Amino acid sequence: FGPAMASAIPSGVKGGRALLIIDPQNDFHPGGSLGIPEADEDALRIAALIQQQGKHLESIVVTLDSHQRNHIAHGLFWVDAAGKHPDPFTVISAAQVESGEWKAAQPRNQERALTYARQLETGGRFQICVWPEHCIIGGPGHNVTQPILDAVNQWAGEQGKEVVWVWKGQNCFTEMYSALKAEVPDAGDPRTLLNQPLVDYLLAHDQVLVCGQALSHCVNFTVRDLMGCMKERFDRVCLLTDASSPVPGFKDIADDFVRDINALGARLKTTYDIVAELGAK
Fold first, then answer.
1. pLDDT confidence of 36, banded at 50, 70, 90?
2. Nearest to 247 by CA among 109, 57, 65, 46
3. How would residue 1 be classed by pLDDT, with cut points 50, 70 and 90?
4. Do the Cβ atoms of 73 and 130 come closer than 8 Å?
């Protein structure tokens, strides 16, 4: 199996605007297992942009965080010496895995878990963070929040185009904050490798508008990876600052991300800015 595409990438796109909506799923909204307080308001603004100016959007790409319960970033994967699972937001270091302070609940996974923890730290961005179980495939938390689902389906009907759906995170042994590649790619699983067809598709547009959840994590690292594939014209990437919010407690990471991409040349605009600009055309 190839890249984690839930729908085919349309061919022949050249120019126009792509709207990239990162993980607009119920579990990241109030009432979900990893709910972001501002996410509902973000979703309403995204939906309004699509409904008001959909004719100016060449493409819409929606990514979906997609996990099994026994994912390495879920508590069910780990136990301590007493057999207790870690609480959400526990950070697990490679040293703790090596010492046995934390170990894989299934002994057959221990060696792989230790290798992963070491590789993750070598990458320099993270240690393992245990998240509340979220976006379990087939469950209600995996579904797209209703306002955005209604808006993209309306756009598809009115414009006669397909929404491009992208799954990420199915591999249970690596985290995949970015929609473009896993934190530690698995050479035996193409879904974790750089999704070059998606990169090429996005960069075939004149502008990529980015929104969704969460600003501190999946939006952050998707945009960083996309811009890392670019050599010029970084201003083609535009973050919609009123349509993405950080996980509570991670605002500093989100602020650093926004500052970093703006310094590289990415645009920062609100959905209202875009609606006004497109309405004037």
1. very high
2. 65
3. very low
4. yes
- Comparing CA positions, the residue from 50, 82, 44 lying closest to residue 274 is 50
Task: Write the single-letter amino acid at 181.
Answer: K
- Whose tokens are 């993405």? That residue is 244
Q: CA neighbours within 13 Å on the CB side: how many for 139?
A: 15
Distance from C-alpha of 18 to C-alpha of 30, rounded to nearest angstrom: 27
CA distance 236 to 52: 22
Burial 117-131 (b: 16+ CB within 10 A, else e): bbebeeeeebebebb
- Token readout for 25 is 């799923």
Could you tell me which residues come within 8 angstroms of residue 152 by beta carbon, excluding any fewer than 6 positions away? 21, 50, 60, 62, 144, 163
Token pair 């759906």 is found at 165
Strand residue runs (E) in the chain: 17-22, 59-65, 78-79, 91-92, 103-104, 128-129, 164-168, 207-212, 237-240, 267-269
Instruction: List, for residues 107-129, the tens digit of each pLDDT value.
Output: 999 999 999 999 999 988 789 99
Structure tokens at 174: 């690596």
The tokens for 46 are: 């995204």
pLDDT tens, position by position, 225-275: 999 999 999 999 999 999 999 999 999 999 999 999 999 999 999 999 999
